[in-house]
Design a protein that fits this description.
Layout lengths: L2 H23 L3 E4 L3 H14 L4 E5 L4 E4 L2 E7 L3 E15 L5 E15 L2 E6 L6 H13 L1
Antiparallel strand pairs: 1-6, 2-3, 3-5, 4-5, 5-6, 6-7
Helix pairs in contact: 2-3
């Protein structure tokens, strides 16, 4: 094997391990030592206990999305303004019966006048909410 191939292979392994380490240190991702079916059930139960409704889910693809919740603002029927957020939870089946769970929170500012909706995505400065939900899933296991 040529020296260039060995170097490229070593670099590939290092990048793979670095990516795995980053996934572990991301506040929005956690690996649980339980099978996907158990994690799916616990996650749905935990979200419901925290007041989140489930909007859509695709167990075969490994994701679920919650209903949106208003964090600030008011809704007067034909006029509404404020900030909303919703969660998308991704499940990845890992070797040795472990499951990776990633929570993506989408936050946006919304304004509705009559039937005209305007929305603007907002950045999320911290991921405290995602950490708290992952902690609650871990505590339930």
């Amino acid at each position: 094997m040529s020296r260039l191939r060995v170097t490229a292979l070593a670099l590939g392994v290092v990048l793979l391990l670095a990516g795995w380490a980053l996934a572990q240190t991301d506040d929005r991702t956690r690996v649980f030592d339980a099978p996907l079916d158990r994690i799916w059930t616990v996650t749905r139960s935990t979200l419901r206990s925290l007041g989140w409704g489930i909007d859509k889910e695709d167990r075969a693809a490994g994701w679920l999305r919650t209903d949106s919740r208003r964090t600030e603002g008011e809704d007067f029927g034909v006029y509404a303004t404020g900030v909303k957020h919703r969660l998308r939870v991704l499940f990845t089946n890992l070797p040795d019966g472990r499951t990776q769970v990633t929570i993506e929170r989408h936050v946006w500012k919304e304004e509705r006048i009559l039937w005209m909706d305007k929305g603007k995505d907002l950045s999320i400065p911290d991921h405290r909410m995602e950490r708290e939900i992952l902690d609650a899933i871990g505590a339930t296991l």
